[in-house]
Amino acid sequence: MLYSEKVMDHFMNPRNVGVIEDADGIGEVGNAKCGDIMKIYLKVDNDIITDVKFETFGCGSAIASSSMATEMIAGKPISEALTLTNRAVAEALDGLPAHKMHCSVLAEEAIKAAVKDYYDKNHIEYDPTIFRESAHEEA
Question: Which strands make up the sheet holding 48-57, listed edge to edge?
Answer without folding.
Answer: 25-31, 36-45, 48-57
